[in-house]
Amino acid sequence: MQEPVFTATSVPVLAPGYRFQWEPAQHCYVLLYPEGMVKLNSAAGEILKQVTEHEQTVEEIITSLKAAFDGADLDDDVYQFLEEAHDKSWIKSK
Questions:
Q1: Is this model's pTM higher than 0.85 or not?
Q2: Which end of the chain is more exposed for a tag (fewer CB within 10 A), N or C?
Q3: Does residue 30 contact residue 19 with C-beta atoms inside 8 Å?
Q4: Rounded to 10 degrees, what is the CA torsion of 34, 85, 70, 56?
């Protein structure tokens, strides 16, 4: 099994060449890159919003999301998304 890229103290950042934004026509957050666009589901959008708005650790991102979503148990979901986004080269660890 591969070692995880992100730990509680990692600081994820958007990879060069990608831009994160709200797309009114799509009614969702999207990730833009030179070859196209990725339409994000609401959970992915909220996580990437935290990544792009503030330079913060994974632990801080999770704390912020828990505060916004009434203490939901989302640690595993955040880590899983970050690893998948890294595998797709959308984000990297600073």
A1: yes
A2: N
A3: no
A4: -80
CA distance 90 to 72: 25
Gap between the Cα atoms of 94 and 85, Å rounded: 14
Give how far the C-alpha of residue 62 lies from the chain's centroid of Cα atoms, to the nearest Å: 11
* Per-residue confidence in pLDDT tens, the chain, 94 aa: 678 899 999 999 999 999 999 999 999 999 999 999 999 999 999 999 999 998 999 999 999 999 999 988 999 999 999 999 999 999 999 9
Ordered domains of the chain (ranges, CATH):
12-88 (1.10.10.1150)
Q: What share of the chain is helix, strand, coil (3-state, %, to 5)?
A: 40, 20, 40
